[in-house]
User: Fold these one by one.
Assistant:
Number 1:
Amino acid sequence: MATTPLAFTFVCHAGPLEPQAVLLAASLRRYAPNVPAVVAVPQPEATWGAPAEHTLAAFARFGIDVAPVEVPFGRDRPLTNKIGALRVPVAADRLALLDSDILVLGPLLDDPLLRSTADVVAKPADFQTYTRDPADWARTYAACDADVPSHRIASTVSGHHGPPFFNSGMVITRRPRELADVWEGCARALAATEGLPFAAHRWDDQPAFAVAVHKGGFTVEPATERLNYPAHVRTLPEGAPPLLCHYHRPRVIRIDPVLRGVVADCAARHPEVARVLRAHPAWAPFVTGARSERPAPVPDLLISGIPGAGAGTLAELLNGYDDAVALTDPPAVHTSLSEHQRPWGIPVFLRENRGYIADGRTDFRPASPDFLFAVANRDGAVLARADAVRAVLPHTRVALCVRDPYDTIADWKRTAERPPPPNPLLPEAERAALHRIDAAPDRAERLALRWAWWARYLLKRPTNTVLVDHEQLLTAPRAALAPVLAGLDAGRPPADPPRRAPVRDRGVLNAHDRKAIAEICVPLADQLGVVVHPEP
């Protein structure tokens, strides 16, 4: 039998997942019009249901064959449908298995990895969702009668190193049936093993796939995000888009104007696609008309600064605008900054919660899906790790709040401020400096030195940050917000933002405190351009 160099396969589940399979088919045909493709439909229909007639008509319109496949574990573990999809009847040198929640965004056949001579091409997982415990990995491989491989790879988003672990949303293989057989055997072995991480059952396709690739002796070439871009945790890059965009769920498309335009274009070009989308409430809003231009990025804003300098106040003011939502001190942001060298948890949090808000699942009701989304961090963690934040959110504006050191330290002293231990991911020199400050026997000097430590972080702040003076924020909120919102659209402002007089409750400061502030803090405040009022 003659073979073709490449073929594609993906799964279509009956029901609410049909639109994503049809969108994948449409985008695949736009950028790989002549490559054979087969959609795998799980059987039996009594268990899985049958795709709607208009869904099947769309596949026929795009010249995509439909093949029934068996799913090894049935409804109990639906993710193993990918194993069945590798067994579709197709004569090709390489079979590319795709998750149906993927959009093709560019000329797919241009990527050399689609012609790789490796047995398997797959991208390392975004996160280490299975386990980071070596003992768990040892039990996992032992359950499949295999040894843990000695080499390690890094997850592409979180950066965690561990045994090879892949995202199975895109797999290219020269040996599809052999891979399916070994993969199924490993999945069955893990299913029968007690004491494995919970994720072995929740994402049972990926741990079994990782072991199968090693146990089966398959050669592997790692793919980059160009062939499996995690749009649920990252905005699309500027310039050339990835070839395969893994969006995971409809709300990611809803909150990304670029992807929203891609889906609207598909619906506008193909009545068959529009019909399928209209039949499903989560997808019907996308049938609005073509939008081929690249819209502006969805606006996000981070707020931080010296603790006690007004980050919460700034968030409160932003919530007065009709197309802005500001959250204060979400625990996920602090956890990401204190536990992860690359704090990808912050863009994940922004993306996920933007989706919840856009879907109406919170009490917030912004005016549009492209609302300004702000997160305020009052303990200064975003400021202290500003470089790490900038690395994962290079274009997100950061507003950093600063306040007259006399007022700040008076508040710290009045509330018996006890600073938390230094962030364990700060550079060693910075953690040592904080330890020395906290060990200083003189309290006045200790508080002044701590304010100065924060001020030095403000002085070396990255680009695309805005310094916000607490006093101006209170007395002239519109003027203070102008540079924060420059180029961003927060919607209609409140009729009259409240103006407040600065609170200078400095009765707790004694002469020794004032001397330390004047000598240690005021010179730095002058460099920052902060207006200082030594009296009263």
Number 2:
Amino acid sequence: MEWVVNAENVIAVGTFAVASSIAFGQWWYERMVPRRRRIGYRVQLDTAIGDDDGTGGGNTRLGLFDEADGMDEASVVLLRIENDGALSVSTGDYTSGGLHGMTATFDGREVHGVAVTVGPGSGALMSHFTPAHGLEYDGSSLRIPRVPLNKGEYFKLLVLLSGGTVGSKVTVSGGLQDGDVHPNESLTPDEKPPVFSRPARLTSMAFLVGIALLAGLIVTGGEPPPMGCATGSLEVTGSTAFAPVAEELAEAYMEQCPGSKITVTAHGSTTGLRELAERGAAAKDGAPGLVALSDGPAPRGQETGDAGTEGGEGGGLAGTRLAVSVFTLLAHADVPVRNLTLADLRRIYAGEVTDWREVGAGRSLPIVLAGRGAASGTRDVLQRRLLDGAFEPPASSRDCSRKDNPKAPVIRCELDTTDQVIATVARVPGALGYSELRTTSTLEGVRRLSLDGRRPSLDGAGHDAYPYREIEYAYTYGRPPADSLTAGFLAFATRGPGQDVVRTHGHLPCGTPEGLRICGAAD
């Protein structure tokens, strides 16, 4: 019994015992406690409709309430009667000696009329509410017929009363074979939760199974493998679009794993991959502590000789799919266009369309292209996914305001970062640019454009055909050792809390079911 000295073991086994008792108790109650017929009732409305409500207060009346005789002390009560037992109730299950099955009594008040309503799908019940079946009233009593009720079925009685006090006692009496008539309550006017619903039972059983596995794991000496926390230094470079995610992942990892130091310096996907390939080829004592983030797979045939593949051994780039990044076209807020077709977009970047009027705007406004340099993965995604492999036109302006090359068909400038592109689009009238979809921030001065009627959306990334999206890769030079800081950081980024960080920044983690449909289908 050495396990007894371990507090975790005692707590786990104790929790298992409690959960077992709860699950068994529910099972025993539902199977061993006799199933009974029960009719429940409750007052859903009790209000004065006359000037004198019997409480010394009063109310406001208007219209027919003031004109009808005898309404000074009038009140109405809405009474709900339902089968809340485990069995159906038939007309023969009532034990009353008369035609009626139950009697409603309104202390101190006199009944003057009653209206009956039934629940959806229960219209056949209305045939039972006739004097011939025992529906009648006398003084403070209302006699209710022997109404058959299936489990969960109900009807309501709206009773007009006079005299007495609003809120005075209302009771329903009657007898049932192997059952009773009783007052009940509900969280909402028309819904009463069951004692043990099916979801509650399933939840309890799932909880029991999970606790059983945990208790067995701890008692037998096993435990889930912890995330490997390695010390040392690691550099993360590459994609600027994914840089904010990488920075937060690095901070979270270093907080969880003291002794690790991770720095993020993003200069573009192509630049990062080239740096990784060069440093990896020059390393003499193993792969460098460097991860290169790339918007999309590394180009095949890059200097490494193994670019763009996963499972690379030794030399060559080895990629890990991290997330699906959704990108969006951005236009200056004053551009009167909300949607572009792929055909029109390609004509714009080919220099064939230079004014927004040519693609549906109601006025003339020159198009200004704000783009990224050749090393940008975001630009590469635009060219591969939207421009059918065609390149953006050459830069023709240094400030995105004036055309420095008069022969160029369109003004186009190149920026170093995505943030610079966004700021430029917001500043320059008629500007068109692109960036990753930032669902957690508000972009002022710009608007996102739809493509062929499809809006950029993270929620729909795994389902619709929105074309401007790409998989974000993390590349290493060869597969890192399992106990290395590089391997630990990649594991953190692809599961557990790392996935939450990725999603918070507007990307779809590849480890989720939605992301796996896209990431798993990639070449």
Number 3:
Amino acid sequence: MRLSEATTETPAGGTTTATPNAGSPIPQPSEQPVAEPQTGAGGAAVESSADSVTASVAREAEDADGSGEPAGARGAEAASGEETPPEFVEVAVDSAPRGSRPAESETPRSHDERPVSRRAKKLIELTRPAGANSKRVAEKIARKAVGRIVTDNSPSTQPIPIIAALKGTPYQAPVATVVKTEEEARMILDLAVDIGAIMLRAGAGSADVEVSVIATCTSLGLLDVEVDLTSNSLTVHYANPDGTFMTVMRVNREESIHFAKLASVHTLVSDMADGKIDYLEARERIDAIRRQRRPYGETFVTVAWGLLAGCFVLLLGGGYIASFLGFIMAIVNDRFGALLGRTGMPPFFTIAAQSMFTTLVAMTAWTFDLIAGPQYLVASGIVLLLPTLGLFSAVQDSLTKFPLTAASRTVEVFMSMAGIVSGIALGLRVGMLIGLSPIEIVVESGGVEALSTIISLIAASIVAACGSIGNQAARRIILPAAGVGLIGFFALTGLGVIGLGTIITSLIAATVVGFLCRPIALWRGAPAIVMLIPAIFPLLQGLSIFSAVYEIVQPQDAVPLSAGLSSLFTAVTANAALAVGAVLGNFLARPLGMHKRRSEPPVDPAPAA
């Protein structure tokens, strides 16, 4: 340790050197002392003030000393001339007359002879305000506080911090300790709403969008944010410590399903929450995600939808000719719907036209004796038109306290179902008017008991895999989704064999699917919805909807209207039970899909001004 010396002239013209002795206290000067900066073990200056060190650091310094006295008190003792540790060296001007100090005190002690204790090194390191150690301690304390907020289950009458919304989610956001400037806060808000807008457009649910926006803001240092979310808009509010209010909003005017993009956004938010990337890298990645191309071309997706319809016919018990017709019908229907969509026609009329076309194709094949069961062909076409994603999102929003978005999505689902029912009824009437043979077979709901086990299981796997391709999921999701869909269909068939009702069977089978999808999807680097929607396709009740509509359009003397309406309500409820079970299974699997928190502190993610 370097020793500093101070000299002063004596009345006789000489000088006196004052050097503290290691074995005795520093003498008390009679005049104002002039102290040089104290130095630590490595020669770096240590400030006597600890303004930038938190109270917890001071307490740790007391514990390290073992004496129960704060570091500031020991510094005060050193300044007053009382007992001073050997690592704190202070040299003052000596104003005493020559000869009043013993001769041995004028001989300075060398640096090598002054030992530095381990306790001194620790105290110097703890009291260093600009070092990395104090920053790590502060961030550790902040993360512990956030952990207590997130894991606290007791009710509170105070406003709940926004970080509590991340409880049970894959994102465990660290807290940046640096207060953001207005410009930095604006940049972080822009990034957060861009992420939310991309997720809304790609088909994410409201709960997933909200937690992603919150995780983005909190991991980059904005804790006092509020998120306002509707079915087609996202607004984020933030108030700076100086009282400046900022609001950023994005509007989503149309939806374009892109599950691969959802998986990329999920990986980005997870990396930010883990502290692996900073703002600049996150901005570059979100710009690249916005330009991300679809993993499959339009023609390939159309063929996948056709293969899904063909395999669904086999899954329900139809023949191979009906399966081939379903394949061709689905391809034509998909191109027909795309053509109508380009004209700006509302979705209700597009779905009704597609449903009518499907019904007419089935009646035509039935008239020319090409197929033995036209109901299976109609059911396969209905599955492609069912608002599976919208139904799941509506149920999820209603169960996760998003009543406004749930009501909006429910209206959309109701209009889609109304379009399907109207199209089927119109197709049956038009077919009879042009001389096609009416469908006289009234099928029972869920007639899967007659299927061969091997054919049905293979068909269920292909249906789930084609659902992944149709929703533009990443390639790494296809095989896991096919496996989960196979397990779900096996559970559905087994529960139907033992005699459980359609609604209970659908609920339990979907719960199994939801329970498996969450941990597997997170393991594959994607949100649960990316795997859950394709895995539900083999469980959809398209045959029940056709059976109910067929009963409604029958003459009153053959089948009462009340019976048809009751069957339709049961069919719609069974499909809603699939969504409820999927949400329940996703909730039950939360402990299995928790994202592991990093043990080391994150890098400060403050954006560059």
Number 4:
Amino acid sequence: MDASTASKATATGRPSLAPLRIGLLTDGRQDLENWQLALIDRILADDRFSLRAMIVCPPKVGAAPVAFRLAAAVERRTLGRQPVYRPKDPGFSAIASVTLGEQIGRDRGSELDLVLAISPLDLPQDAFSDLPFGSWQFSFSHAANADADWYGYHEVIAEKPATELRITVRRAGREDETLAMAEFNTKFSAVRNADFIKERAVTLAMRELRKLADARALTALPPPATMSAPRPPGLGKLLPYAASLGRNLLARGRQAVEEKLGIGAAPWVLFVGDGRAEDFDPRTSVLLEPEDDELRADPFLFPHEGETYVFYEAYTPSNTKAHIAVGRLVGNRLESVGIALKAEHHLSYPFIFRHDDGIFMIPETNRARRLEVWRCVEFPLRWELHATALEGQSSADSALFPFDGRWWLFTNLSEFHAYEDHCSELHVFEVDGPDLKWMKPHRNNPVVMGSTEARNGGRPFEQGGRLYRPSQRNQYGIYGYGLNIMEVEELDLETYSERCVRTIKPDFAPGIVACHHMDASNGRYIIDAMFADQANLRR
């Protein structure tokens, strides 16, 4: 299944509707940013939409401190450079361009269904609000004007655990409404923080446009707490930020050198304890002492012929290209059995399960740009490739399981230009089972967006007829900071909803700074964790 399959209107099985007529509001047609070009490309490529015009509007004016503009320009040139984005759709150059105040034309402007602002603009409150679906805006437009963009700085300077993105809509006679919201792990650099989230904003906007194209109605989220738009940072905040950024760059440079020398791999380890998936207490866990210099993550428990095996990602400080290892759990010890799966590329997240008379595994193979299902030939060390799917796509941490009479694939996809990231989008497919002969995408993929909840963090499990999904909680600039237990409240190809019922933080053992995966089976649970340094690992 290729990426375009999931985006076609016919995939919904619904009657064909007239395309949504969209206008883009911009402060000019020159020097569009990568994310703006990508958004235009994706709108043009989807037959549910008709991009009628680029409407040039007055830019938002205002003065930002000279010191900030200089510092931001330097950071942009050094840390914000991206590959050139080349529009893929030949229709891009044919989009009509008009200026606000001109007669847009009865066959175009007066027939728009909605407009979407892609620049910070100075518009009257009621401009375009009388369109059927109003005027849409990204929250990052509130932190920019014609001569400066300070989106992302406030969150980095204030050390916010996550940075928020919202899409709001303005309709006649209503307060501004939130259509969609997501939170993303705050980066160390404000420029990278903003650029990363703007790239994610393309996916979020396209999802909301597709939902509107199918339903022809808007559904708003509860109103947020009142928040004022941040101002450009002054010198008093800019100097400490610059010092912090410099320290971070030095630390990252040192880490890169250490990794090249084979001494800087992240020290992930495994803890095990007695308990159930729904209510285990990580404070009762015991460290599975590493053998030699082996580092371990993404563990899955697998009972087989009266014994419990652990399949996990394994690597060493001198070789971070991980393979899938397997050990036998004996009490609070892990006895090494061997290497279950090895490849030319990195492997992790060995999601292992039974079906009929077979044992299957879905390791993370995103560097191969496809999803792979392996079948066990001789347990536990001999496996053969059984099926593939999502060819050409970058998927990670996939889970394939039956629930309520149907098979489901939950996977984290990353469609990107400059910032590949598997922590921000959860995609759901109904499938036939491990053969993957057919796949039906969820109508609203990605069904979850945001790094605080989207990425899978272990095996989904049932309790009392309810489905629960462990997920990663990526915050504070740390990959894999913590875990969530999400209760899936609605699941079919038309709807999806879940809520967080539990959060697990990295506070259950001295010296750990992250924990991002768990599994449980037969009254035992296993969880991974990362120590701050090798000294804590060998405490």
